Every structure is written in structure tokens, then in C-alpha cells.
Amino acid sequence: MCISTSQAAFSGTIVYCGRQTHPEHGLIHVLGYQNTAVNRAHGPNAMLLHLPTRQLTPQHFLHPGRTDDVLQRMVDAVRPVAVAAEAGGAAWMGWEPEPVQVFDHDVYTVLLAADPTLIPAALEQVPPHRRPEVAPELLRFYADHFPDHTIALCCFDNADAQRAKPLLLWYEPLDPDRLIVPALDSHTGGAPDLDAAVPVDHWVLFASDEAPADWGEPVRYPGNIRDRLRAFLPATVVGRYFGADQDLPNGDFTVTHHDLLTHGPDLDRVERLRPTGARCALPAVAGE
Fold first, then answer.
1. How far apart are CA 149 and CA 191, in angstroms?
2. Residue 288 placed within a domain
3. What CATH number is attached to the domain comprising 124?
């Protein structure tokens, strides 16, 4: 349920995107991503995420600490409904990041790049047990189709299924009024087939701090959650499960902020977004 640099299997994917006005960073989107990965390559592997922002650093990644079930708590909040139906913008001025930033985050060594074709030269900074081989055509695909995005290459080496802590990060979005969660699919190491229909196993979650009081389902966080992390998490969410028996057009999940607020609980305005910019509607929830 994502792009990998070699043979892998991913299941139980949870993806979240929330829009909020943060007291320090202003209008931002917060992305959450978690799955179970099985590395079927003979060596290290990696998954790629394309993030709709021009500026991203390690400081944008949030550390859940002991609260590593925040995305599962969001799923638990919406499950009955769904089944039944650190730097602000001014700080970037005059600052140029490294072409590729490399850092460790949970089970991953993460490489961030505005130009994915620069990633191969930076792979020597990745520990050998996590250093994957990346096909040039895969990086060229991202360079051609996501020129304004930041690409995150998340390197791992877990031969058995492992539930990593969630990837949580915030960013200044390219389009504040469109919420997007990455869901392009290819597990062969090559560029994804944009004409394919692919199986899905996703909980897709959205939130907005502009939602009315009776919108969505409340999320119950543990009492010991850190204040800094809590400031990036929603009070209420809406969500929908797209099951493993469904094949959908290859692409990301997206919804406009207006449609989210107006039709949020049903998520009947969520679309599949193609790298070409084309969008297609998704099947209605059974029983609608």
C-alpha cells in the first residue's frame, strides 16, 4: 500500500491528514502514516512518500514517544461509524537546507530531498544494514511527477513483519485547501503503474480544527501524552476503511477542505488523485 525500493508487503495501513492553525507555525497540515512492513528483499529496503510541501526538515517530524498508538486511537474513534455506514514560515527566509537531509526516526533512516535524483549520492550516509538499492527510474518518476514536493525515503531492514511507530510530521502545504495522503502503490522496486487498479487495505482519516462541535468522532488520548505532541493532534476525526477486497485506481487519497467540513462524516467526497492531476471518485460505502 505504498512505494518500496524492492520486494515488500505492506498491510494494515493507517493514513491521516489534518489541517489546523498551530499557535506557533500558523496554517499547517499534519500527516500520519503507519503500516506493517514485511521486507521480501534479500537486503535492506525502503518506502517512499511524496509530501506536498517545499520545505521539510527533521524538526518537522514528531516523536510519539510512549504514545505510539495515536493513529490507532483515531481509527478506534471512527471505526463504529465507518463500519456501520519546529520552525515557522518566517524562519525559512534566507535559509537553504542541505540537498538531502539524513536522520534516524524509529526503525527508519530517513532521507529528505526536494530533488530525488540526488538521493543516490547520499545513501552512503545510511547505515549498511539499512542501505537499499534504489532504481534510478523510480527516482526519476518522482522527479518528473512531483517536482514541487519533498520526497522522504524511509530505509528499513526488518525481515519479519514489524509494526513501526507512526510517522508523524507537520508541514506548510502547497495547497492549504486540499488534504492529501500518499497512497501510490508499487512493491517491485520500479516506478508505479499509473494505469493499474491496485488492492487497498487502508484506514483513511481526516480532521480540521475549523470543524463544528458536532462534527466527527472524539479521539481519546492517554493522560500522559506530551503537550507538544498533543498540540498537533485533532480533537475529532472522520475516517473510512478501504478494504483488502477492493481494487482502486492507483493514486493518493484526497479531499478539499470545504468538502471535508460539509460532507466530512460520510467521506463521500474523497477522491483518488493521480500524479497527472486527474481525480476519480471512489465507491460509496456499502448500504448508502
1. 17
2. no
3. 2.60.250
Taking the whole predicted model, whether its pTM rises above 0.85 is answered as yes
Q: What is the pLDDT of residues 96-116, one digit of tens each?
A: 567 999 999 988 999 999 999
How many CA atoms are closer than 13 Å to the CA of 207, on its beta-carbon side?
28
Structural domain containing residue 111: 3-281
DSSP 192: -
* Domains: count for the chain: 1
Q: Report which DSSP code applies to 116.
A: G
Cβ(14)–Cβ(77) under 8 Å?
A: no
List, in order, residues 6 or more apart from 105 with CB less than 8 Å away: 58, 61, 63, 154, 167
3-class secondary structure, 263: helix
CB 253 within 8 A of CB 204: yes
Listed range (136-150, 171-185, 217-231, 232-246) with the worst mean pLDDT: 232-246
Size of the chain in residues: 288
Cβ neighbours of residue 90 closer than 8 Å, sequence gap 6 or more: none
Within 8 A by CB and 6+ apart from 256, the residues are 177, 178, 179, 269
